[in-house]
Amino acid sequence: MSCQANPKSDIYNMTSWRDSIKRLNWRQILIHFLASCSFTISFKYLLFLYDIRLFKIIQENDSINLQLTAIKRQNIGITEIMNYVFFSTSYWLWAVLLAFLISLFISLRKHWFWVNSMLSFIGVVIIYKNPLERRPPERDLNTIYHNLMPLSVGYCIAIGILFLAIGLWMFFSRSINNFIASTIQILPN
């Protein structure tokens, strides 16, 4: 038994690599990337409302001392605070995973190349969590405290639903899917 590579194998077959590159659809990658970004914005605002009581305490009290006093008055435990911090800082992961599953489902259902979904997923992950950046986790929490618009429950619900609708429209719109499908090349088997 020899350990030599089989030249007829798909790994060494350059035509299969060329065919794979030809199957990349930049329209699908870009549109699904934008839809995934819309999901992350939506989840950011909707997951602020994970615990409305704690959300209101943070919004109504300017200083950390007033917030701690209000938290003690409301008998909010450390578990509740940790859950709130976890969900309000990991929104991007939940959104990107859901968007990836929707993108993959659409790709498989329409017989598009699944790597396009994977590339849009990787792009969103790189944009939202660049591993080379090494930023402190407190920076994510600053969006709660230092937002351009004052956050309220109604504002978070409205922005969350608006961007979720935009993302779903970008994924499931017939005209957008026809636009994506118009560039797909059917390759011979």
Rough outline? elongated
Order of helices and strands: HHHHHHHHHH
Instruction: Report helical residue fraction.
Output: over 70%
Rg: 22 Å
Q: What is the averaged pLDDT score?
A: 78
Largest sheet: none
Number of strands: 0
User: Which stretches are poorly predicted, pLDDT < 50 over at least 5 residues?
Assistant: 136-148
Which oligomeric state applies?
A: single chain
Number of helices: 10
Sheet-strand content, in percent, reads: under 5%
What distance lies between the first and last C-alpha atoms, to the nearest angstrom? 31 Å
Provide the structure class: mainly alpha
Walk me through this protein's architecture.
The protein is mainly alpha-helical and 189 residues long. It contains ten helices and no strands. The protein has helices at residues 14-22, 26-48, 52-60, 64-73, 78-89, 91-109, 114-128, 138-145, 153-172, 174-181.
